[in-house]
Amino acid sequence: MGPAMDLDKTDAKIHELIAFRVGKQEFSINVTSVREIRGWTSATILPKAPRYIRGVINLRGAVLPIVDFAVRLGLPTAEPTARNVIIVVQIEQKQIGLLVDAVSDIITLNHNSIQPTPDVSSDAVSTFLRGLLPVDGRMISLVSLDNVLPPESAVAA
Amino acid sequence: MALTVLTVDDSRTMRDMLKHSLVAAGFRVLQAEDGLDGLEVLKTEKPDVVVTDINMPRLDGFGFIEAVRSDAERRTMPVLVLTTEADPDKKSRAKAAGATGWIVKPFDPVKLVDAIRRVAA
Amino acid sequence: MAADPMAEIREVFFQECEEQLGELESGLLQMENGSKDAETVNAVFRAVHSIKGGAGIFALDALVRFAHVFETTLDAIRGGRLAADPPIMALLLRAADALMDLVRAARQGEPISDTQTQDLVAEFNALAAGKAAAHAKAEAKPAAPPPPPPAPSGPPKRSWVIRLTPKPPLYAKANETALLLRELSLLGEIEVEVDASGLPDLADIDPEATYLSWNIVLSTDKDSAAIRGVFDFVEDDCDIEMFEQPDFSFFDGGSEPEAEAAPAAPAGGTESNAPAPPAAPNPVETMAAQAENASSVSQTIRVDLDRVDRMIDLVGELVITEAMLSQRVLEAGLARTSAVAMALEELEALTREIQDSVMAIRAQPVRAVFQRMPRLVRELAAHTGKQVRLVTEGESTEVDKTVIERIADPLTHMIRNAIDHGLESTEKRLAAGKSPEGQVRLTALHRSGRIVIEVADDGAGINRARVKQKAIENGLINPDAQLTDDETDNLIFLPGFSTASEISDISGRGVGMDVVRRSVQAMGGRISITSRPGLGSTFTLSLPLTLAVLDGMVVKTSDQTLIVPLAAVLETLRPNMSDIHPLDNRTSVLALRGGYVPMVDVAEALEFGNHTTPPDQCVALLVESEGGNRAILLVDEIQGQRQVVIKSIEANYRAVYGIAAATVMGDGHVALILDVDTIVSATRDSGRTDFNRSISQVF
Questions:
Q1: Hey, how many other C-beta atoms are within 10 angstroms of the C-beta on C599?
Q2: Which of A124-128, C600-604, C640-644 has the lowest mean pLDDT?
Q3: CB within 10 Å: which end of chain C, N or C, has fewer?
Q4: Residues near C467 by Cβ (< 8 Å), separated by ≥ 6?
């Protein structure tokens, strides 16, 4: 039950990350918050839910909300069927499923390689992103999961 | 060889305390919750000494001792009763019922072990 | 072993105290009700005695002292020396409350002193003094044993000659000469000779009789008291002569028969080694049987709650998986009569049985909650100056543990309400020709698969005029609204009904009945009130037997599968177009048996997208919310009924509008469980005012 990765800590520890693709972009999250990776199954839609909540699925008896990561980030959404991987992550006491296109890599992170996110990013992006990591010529955005589900008061009933 | 002591008391606190003291002294401890339970245990076990409380539901200490004393196979079993200090009536009643000896509550672990050793063959 | 075994035992002690305090109170109440059962009095005595014993271990002296005084009085009652008349019962109940307070303070580590209980102690002592004065019984002390010979000062080691003649009772109590000799030998040097001169011929020996004596010479530096101490346990059961000066005249010159010839060899044998007397039907068992019939107590074991919860979760999974398996089998096209399908049916039945058994494990009698009420009633009665009698029924009615924990608060508020507002003052009652003592009746029973708890008072009933007035003042209803008596009574549950100024300080903390109703509804329960003027009011609380499982109606609308709690569904029907009347573009009503019921298209209410099925082709469910409000829910079809395991959405997400919880269906997908109350109250969102106005405008 690891906490969401807080990349603001300036200790020189090494983290392992899982990288995944959404559309043309790549993102990564700390491996310790990942519980499992599974294929897409149709979700039960929730009434009056925000657009980025695709619904809920059954994960071994527990009800798991599915967050469409592209929608959450405000990225242009391609055909929904392209999204077919669910990354189950633990955020404090809750588990949620992140809907992404595919998992691409496992990366060993060295804090010293992180570059700051450029200012041009949208609000949504800056809420979640903690930096950029160059890997093999690609730029991978580091994601902080803390705000993936907004605080309860923000969701209109 | 370790002696086996059966403790009969309806208070879990007291049972735990007795066990704590007896195990520390190297005894093996059996437990029962009241007189009836104690008789059940005695159907299959032969402890070396029994320590019993007096006030218990279903079958009290006196009844328990009387039952033990009327059982051909068990009547030679030493039974000590736990009594409160200021209770000469209880003591004599216990004796009349067939108690081998007594221990005063709240008990001093040393005196408890001593009394048990005194009556254990 | 754990860090501190004493800390663990201390925790056990306090847990046990809570149980004992519960036994104490319920026993005292039975006695107060007139029970003369000796076992009840004994149980009450034992409870206090037990607490005292444990308190002694942990050196909680003030608690020990108070418990001792309390116990002494109880002992007098159970010994028939003191009668348990009403003033004494009241004293005992107050003492029980004080004991509870002392125990709880001790548990928190707060200092406890005699000052808290000195008044009660004084009353107890007065009782004892009065008793003693009345009876003036002189206690005969048993004759003191003859004083031991004075220990002479002189050389430390002295010789003692002891002649020991055991009597049958000594052996009967499992004492042993050999052990006594062993003890003596620990004091010094010992020489022992057995005197078997009293032995008859073997043929005439009575195995139970004693024929031997022992002559012992003990050389020791211990004093005579120490020597006598060895015979502590047996002093009544043998003859002991003890002389300090050696006196060899005791010893016969003749040789003694070998000790081994006597059946009573010191090595652990007794004089009853001879063939035992013919065994009567084992007295141990007979006694056990008798005592068991007398009390018919069932066996129990203690189990960690976590383990039970885990097992319940697993069984829940089992039910879901079994349903999924059934589904797959059907989908695979296997005939219902195939061996696989039939085996599955058996599996289904078995799974259901397991589920029932497991739920029964967590089922507890409501007694656990009811037990706290008598004290509450006592305090409220004292506070309001009213005389109140609490009667409880159905304490053994069982409910899931999850429910038990959550009904304590609603119950407390209902009882407070009953005593505070329901019951009149003593004067008013007398003026109305009622008995001065008001009664609050607390009942629990099972009814149609739910548990129903009623709190009834025999007070003045609800003052309907005043309630209606208050509701109008607070803008809760239209001044010219037509309400039935029942509807008026239930106005007290509306939010905003009780203003702060009206909430008395004991019903206080600003909790109105609306908060109570919300917490009841959160449990899937209902609460309502009925009242008869002058005769009293009755709160009725209805709860599901368990919060983990729900009987639901499976419906489908806009391709979504939903579960509607069966308890809320009154009937299903197909609406006729002619009965459907639109009020405005939002709301329609259905004419039903002379009344009008608002209609809700569930798919639209939950925003499942454009629902195109016309109302008269939908299936209509007539549902009733907790508040007794009705509505028609329109769905596409009904698929059946089943029992579903309730899964929380909040656990991983948050509360969802219109949805109470979720479950997993046979196909592995999540189905949402409808929150009927939210949907129904949405139809009345603009309040009864609009609804009534709309109705009267249209018609």
A1: 23
A2: A124-128
A3: N
A4: C488, C489, C491, C492
| Contact between chains at B17 and C43 (C-beta distance less than 8 A) | no
Rounded to 5, what percent of chain C is helix, strand, coil?
45, 20, 35
Q: Answer whether residue C138 shows pLDDT above 60.
A: no
Per-residue pLDDT of C336-390, as tens digits, reads: 677 887 888 888 888 878 877 887 787 888 888 898 888 889 888 888 888 899 9
Confidence of residue C441 (pLDDT cuts 50, 70, 90): very high
Closest-CA distance of chain A to residue C685, Å: 15
CB contact under 8 A, B72 and C277: yes
Backbone phi and psi for residue C697, each to the nearest 5 degrees, phi listed first: -70, -40
Which residue in chain B has the smallest CA separation from C58?
A: B106
Of the candidates C223, C209, C507, the one whose C-alpha atom is nearest the C-alpha of residue C379 is C507
CATH number of C158-250: 3.90.230.10, 3.30.70.60, 3.40.50.10580, 3.50.50.60? 3.30.70.60
Q: Report chain A residues whose CB lies below 8 A from the CB of C607.
A: 47-48
Determine whether domain C367-544 maps to CATH 3.50.30.40. no
Looking at the partner chain, which of A55, A63, A152 has a beta carbon nearest the beta carbon of C652?
Answer: A63
Question: Model confidence over A45-101: pLDDT tens digits?
Answer: 999 888 889 899 988 778 999 998 888 887 766 555 556 889 999 988 788 999 998
3-state DSSP call for residue B99?
coil
Does the domain spanning B4-119 belong to CATH 3.40.50.2300?
Answer: yes
**Which CATH number applies to C5-135: 1.20.120.160, 3.40.50.620, 1.10.760.10, 3.30.420.40?**
1.20.120.160
**C174 vs B105: CB contact, 8 Å cut-off?**
no
- B106 to chain C: which residues are within 8 Å by CB? 53, 56-57
Q: How far apart are CA C627 and CA C527, in angstroms?
A: 8
The pLDDT value recorded for residue C273 is 36
Q: What angle do CA C681, C684, C689 make, to 5 degrees?
A: 140
CATH number belonging to domain A14-146 = 2.40.50.180
A148 touches chain C (CB under 8 A): no
ipTM for the predicted complex: 0.82
CATH class of C549-698: mainly beta
At C152, the pLDDT band (50, 70, 90 cuts) reads very low
Distance from CA of C8 to the nearest CA of B (A): 9
